[in-house]
């Protein structure tokens, strides 16, 4: 069993998304790893068809929880069973993590809903679900933020290559900002001074690298429930109603495009004789920004200084070293309308504000016409367009007046102590990723999702410790040892054997099957044959029996006692199964297939599912894969840096790609889609032991001792 699998359902406020991940089991990973990979976290992989999303959110079943299984959960179980190999289902953990939508339910309704989900999953699947409280739960916003922080740094490289991400003052990790429909989160590692001053406010996070060594981080994370874009909008409308005289029919709303009329809940007016109060858009973005400012609740009492929004304590942020990436609404609100091609451009406050002002001042009829003509792309509809003015105003207020990210300096970062000149670290060809804030959706075509952070932590918990007295993987209060509130990673560290199955064959078949789906019938027919043969010969014993039968048939045709002629037999094991090749390379999805990488194709409609909610929120520059390659070579001399690209002239966004020199960033160097085998030279001693010039499929001791692998006798 060369691979491990994990399933997680992100049960957000407006929908549920299934994510399936796989990674090498630790025995296999250690066996194949290069030295720098041994000190890295496990490499996770996912694909487009590994993910499924459906509306509405599970909170919809709060009043009738007995129906959530057959009406909602079953479809995700069915989808996961199509992906996870049958012989690994019982070994594959399944998690459902509910966010703000379920947080808003009454405690008794939460409990009944989660209990029904767990009992249904146990009764209708064999996935590993040993502890309902651990596997099926509502996660607090601060934990969601912590998982997001793990995912962001996993992708950007803050964990694996600190020397290449030095921001100064010994700091090498990135801060994380998330905003959904119901809540907003922040997570970052304060500078050393603040970390010491606010040690009791930090969480201790412990992970484990491939070689079994522990890695610890101290992180501050908190959440603001009610500060997501949807709930902030509800509070805004309530305030708007209160400031008008009772009985007023038309309430002037500067946060709606000029001329747009809606009900208070935002639904369009279909009846001109509407008797209830309505909102009439005036398209005044400056006034909209001013009216949304009070929603920050900056004047709330601060019991534990310093505070940011709503009297919530947050250690002082040192923007010289704390560089934040913003996901979900931070990305979608700056890209849904104002960057129709979704190119990765750097966030620029001045240009962004000017774009929003022009858009919101336009007449609604003109905006609708532009939508019909796809001016902003096919995914921008009327609902998106009517909400974007409020969302933009709220985002600007939260970023700059709430969190305190400076407006000055966003357009240009001045070099200072600890300045990292490695342009590959981001922001584009002319500017490093040292700005206080960047909006990001994907890193190397991999979505920055908190679900990835959860599964990275779980996979790290699968690794056996290098020392018998090692502390467990997980997180809790920032105290020595194992704090009382320590939450285990939700996994065991029992080593799993590498196994004898040849994962390469099934992986190639899977990739070809995806290509066949997009190709003609002839190729599809050939692929189906390949998959059929792969299924027949998936077991080593079957391949060996076939090899012996065919080999003996061909040997009988020679003269008894005659020496074998030079060259390889056509039906030799190496020819048929690749055993004699010096090495093999894992076939990756090509450029077109990369577009089908699930989380790499999440655009504006993805902010409908997790709480980050209405926001989409895989892997790390230390290592998760980018699927946008045909073949990945493990080159010890390759670059280990990931970076962001900023296309000149664009106002906003952020992204990463190869550095243009032929080398690949670290995220690709440890690609989760890559499996390596030993070279012929490294296997030569083992091959000689096996005799007769035959090469073992791997150099594992297990294979060397197997009586089935002894050299074939000559006739």
TrEMBL record:
Annotated segments matching region Disordered? 600-624, 677-715
Annotated GO molecular function terms are: ATP binding; GDP phosphatase activity; ribonucleoside triphosphate phosphatase activity; UDP phosphatase activity
Enumerate the UniProt keywords alphabetically: ATP-binding, Hydrolase, Membrane, Nucleotide-binding, Transmembrane, Transmembrane helix
Q: Where is the active site?
A: 144 (proton acceptor)
Binding-site residues, ATP: 181-185
Cited Gene3D superfamilies: 3.30.420.40, Exopolyphosphatase. Domain 2
Entries under PANTHER family matching the protein: ADENOSINE/GUANOSINE DIPHOSPHATASE, NUCLEOSIDE-DIPHOSPHATASE MIG-23
Its family? Answer: Belongs to the GDA1/CD39 NTPase family.
Protein name per its UniProtKB record: Golgi apyrase
